[in-house]
Amino acid sequence: MSYAQLHKHFLKIAHLNHLSAICNWDQAAMMPSGGNEARSAALAELSVLIHQQTTAGQLAGWIESAEKEALRVEEQASLAAMKRRWQQANQLPETLVLAQSLATSTCEHAWREQRKKNDWESFKPNLVKVVELAREEASIRAAASGVSRYDAMLELYEPGINCAQLDELFGDIKTWLPDYIQRAEQLQTAKNIITPTGPFSIEQQKALGEAAMKLLGFDFEHGRLDVSNHPFCGGVPSDVRITTRYDEADFMKALLGVIHETGHARYEQNLPKAWTGLPVAEARSTGIHESQSLLFEMQLARSPEFTQLLAPLAAKILQREDDPAFTTDNLYQFNTRVKRGYIRVNADELSYPAHVILRYEIERALIDGEIEVDDIPALWNEKMQAYLGLSTEGNYSDGCMQDIHWALGLFGYFPSYTLGALYAAQEFSAAKRAIPTFDEKIAAGDLEELFAWLNTHIWSKGSFLATQDLMTAATGEPLNARYFKRHVEQRYLSL
Fold first, then answer.
1. Same domain, 271 and 404
2. Domain limit, last residue, from 159, 175, 201
3. Residues with a known catalytic role
4. Tell me, what's the pLDDT at 453?
5. pLDDT, tens only, 24-41
6. Quick one: 254 and 118 in the same domain?
7. Average of pLDDT values for 295-309?
């Protein structure tokens, strides 16, 4: 049967992707800097090999034949996912795949030191090359699908979402977000919030992170925690690698980063195992993936109920049991403090969408050819002042060089963060409606019903359903931004 042949072939591709994922993790977390040139060449060769396998000549006939076979509903969804992967791969020439792999490896590796030095001028030539190749990819994909260049890239991360929909969603958020931020800041001025003061040793912070991972159900037999310049979740479902970065002056940065990545990891570790290795067993979209990390980090970890678990755990492991900064109430107030800042990954829940919208607007204009790389710093500064009242003039490290995404050529990814926040609020609301005495169970450390709900409605579904069908099945309706708006009103604007 042709479907069986496709199944076997895509498992071979999955094995190659497995090797690529672990090599990429090692490059980011373990590899000595002197190994980058050879590693980049090896990964580029591997990316070409994967591309060759995904575009192999026999696949067209197998797909055409399999579409005529009497397949089960699940197999039909699996076939559709394989066909989509095959079509996307066939749009790109092998030479472009190789060039992109080399350019992004060079750009990302150099970025690590250039960001530390606030060296935009050295970073810029590498980024220009990455952008040129991304535009070439976007043009090819746009021609094949009949959409704009940015919409074509967005489809890689958020199937079924386009700029018109994003503009409507983000446009609405921009109408109320500045006022909400200002009101929340005014309300918290009446609160006496104690900032936990360091130093907090890296050894203690790692122990606390691993304790939080255990509390959140992370499977240490199939994953591990390490350090990298930019936190991420990688690897494969059977071997999930998450990373964080430590600041001895502020333990919450690493801890919340670990919790965020643990949300990603739990999703990966619970994707449908019977279909492992096939595209249908992968996450539906980056927005749904981000919904899991943001549900863990924002909806759950910053809730007053979960803080009842987190505060004594942190006080014990960090040896601050008599420190008033580590009381449950103070730690909750500290973790829900609204404070405009430069760094996206450290942003509070309320101001976070402003960081994402800024990036979306810049990268969309960049890919569509409306601006050039030279324009990014000034435009970034302009939007930071407009959205958050902060200037990044001359401060590239905390401005347009702070993220790894553009160095890696991930244009179209950023909208997923705010889409993920919207999905997360809707999912969390549905879980609370479905689970009796939800808040009491969280406060008591009984998280299993929440995890079971997520597994039933999100994790185990993989890519069997279209995104909005997945949301409707899980929550009763497609994406509805009112859940996020109501959530931030209740958490940040209620007395």
1. yes
2. 159
3. 261
4. 98
5. 999 989 999 899 899 999
6. no
7. 97
- The whole-number pLDDT of residue 443 equals 96
- Same domain as 286, residue 143: no
Average pLDDT over residues 386-413: 96
Average pLDDT of span 409-437: 97
Q: State whether 170 and 84 are in the same domain.
A: no
Give the residue-averaged pLDDT of 430-458: 97
The tally of domains found in the chain comes to 2
Reduced 3-state DSSP string for the chain: CHHHHHHHHHHHHHHHHHHHHHHHHHHHHCCCHHHHHHHHHHHHHHHHHHHHHHCCCHHHHHHHHHCCCCCCHHHHHHHHHHHHHHHHHHCCCHHHHHHHHHHHHHHHHHHHHHHHCCCHHHHHHHHHHHHHHHHHHHHHHHHHHCCCHHHHHHHHHCCCCCHHHHHHHHHHHHHHHHHHHHHHHHHHCCCCCCCCCCCCCHHHHHHHHHHHHHHCCCCHHHEEEEECCCCCEEEECCEEEEEECCCCCCHHHHHHHHHHHHHHHHHHHCCCHHHCCCHHHCCCCHHHHHHHHHHHHHHHCCCHHHHHHHHHHHHHHCCCCCCHHHCHHHHHHHHCCCCCCCCHHHCCCCCHHHHHHHHHHHHHHHHCCCCCHHHHHHHHHHHHHHHHCCCCCCCCCCCCCCCCCCCCCCCCCCHHHHHHHHHHHHHHHHHHHHCCCHHHHHHCCCCHHHHHHHHHHCHHHCCCCCHHHHHHHHHCCCCCCHHHHHHHHHHHCCC
Range of the domain at 23: 2-159
The reported pLDDT for the residue numbered 495 is: 58
